[in-house]
């Protein structure tokens, strides 16, 4: 018997109410902040991600789904959303538009990692990217947008974690200090961190293994090595956040898992669960567009996993709007009644009335029981007598009251309820 591949999940009808709630709030939030939707391919040239995400990251080293097509092109399923949006920004000449260009997306993301609660090998993201502006004021707006999005869904009990990891001018100094600090501690590091020490020491701060976390707590902090530009940018961001009355936690270990980040990085974390269960996060990536062949272009964005949000909605007992219930259920007995039921249903649907027609040979009692199960507010009963009279019997499913009416009157009555 076939099953969904490990690390994937079917989103069943009873779960869809959460997804529609999240997607609706995401689109509403994007509209409020002036973002337009973009959809990019599920797979790209693999080098797009190895160049942008970074060869020293876990995503590139362990998690990308790589394959060759029949033309021998090396492709990858999309392991994150930002690089694809930046590629589209360049390919379609969006640098000629008024800046910043604000884009949002929903995307399937593919990473070969150990499945756990809220983390799948195929998961789904909502993300936003603001490309073409370097002001810390935009950083504050993006962070505010992310926080407002989570609040709009009814989520509570989360905090903003904030850090600056510098730029290509000042970060090498921090990297060298990290190497000097970690070199005597090699014996206590995990195998992955030994590789990170050589390839990208900044990743050492992001390790989730207890022994490595202890070492990271006392590691040199990026804030102590920021150049004047990065320092002023970060102080201005804090000033804007304070003006917006947004509280934050300065987290010197926050680096995010992608190499393209510069200056501001942030995460929204639930008060219970910590960084491994972060609701979402993002940061500034001022060098990425140039890395992909464009001119130097500052940018910032954030992304969040929809599965992770669903878990938090459930754990916080947030009530989301239920699925729309059908307005009418048509119960019919006999071939002539079935034909009449199909005609009436077609006419009502043309008037935007939701209708479910019973299509089996069950008894009237069983059909009305189904009408209750699907939550229909009314039921139209059609049998031989109703076909001969050209009428339907309309039953109120809440109080059981019935009245015989013409199909035209049924359409007028139900249309007025929409």
- Sum up the overall morphology in one term: elongated
**Strand tally, please?**
16
Helix and strand content put the structural class at: alpha+beta
How much helicity do the residues have? 25-40%
* CATH topology grouping of the largest domain: BirA Bifunctional Protein, domain 2
Which regions contain 5 or more consecutive residues with pLDDT less than 50? none
Mean pLDDT: 92
Q: How far from one another are the termini?
A: 44 Å
CA radius of gyration is 28 Å
Q: What summary fits the major beta sheet?
A: 8 strands, mixed
Looking at CATH, the homologous superfamily of the largest domain is Bira Bifunctional Protein, Domain 2
In what order do the strands lie side by side in the largest sheet? Answer: 1-5-6-11-10-9-7-8
Assign the CATH class of the largest domain.
Alpha Beta
Q: SSE layout and pairings?
A:
Elements lengths: L12 H20 L3 E2 L5 E3 H7 L5 H6 L2 E3 L5 E4 L4 H10 L9 E10 L11 E10 L4 H17 L5 E7 L6 H12 L8 H9 L10 H8 L10 H16 L5 E2 L11 E9 L9 E5 L3 H4 L7 E7 H10 L12 E5 L2 H16 L4 E3 L6 H11 L3 E5 L1 H6 L2 E5 L5 E4 L1 H9 L3
Parallel strand pairs: 1-5, 7-8, 12-13, 12-14
Antiparallel strand pairs: 2-4, 3-4, 5-6, 6-11, 7-9, 9-10, 10-11, 14-15, 15-16
Helix pairs in contact: 1-5, 5-9
Key descriptive features of the protein:
single chain; 418 residues; alpha+beta; Rossmann fold; 2 domains; 15 helices
How would you describe this structure to a colleague?
It is a single chain. The chain is an alpha+beta fold and about 425 residues long. It has two domains: about 15-170 and about 225-315, 2-Layer Sandwich (BirA Bifunctional Protein, domain 2), CATH 3.30.930.10; about 330-410, 3-Layer(aba) Sandwich (Rossmann fold). Helices cover about 40% and strands about 20% of the residues. It has an eight-stranded mixed beta sheet, with helices on both faces. Helix 1 packs antiparallel against helix 5 and helix 5 packs across helix 9. The radius of gyration is 28 Å and the shape is elongated.
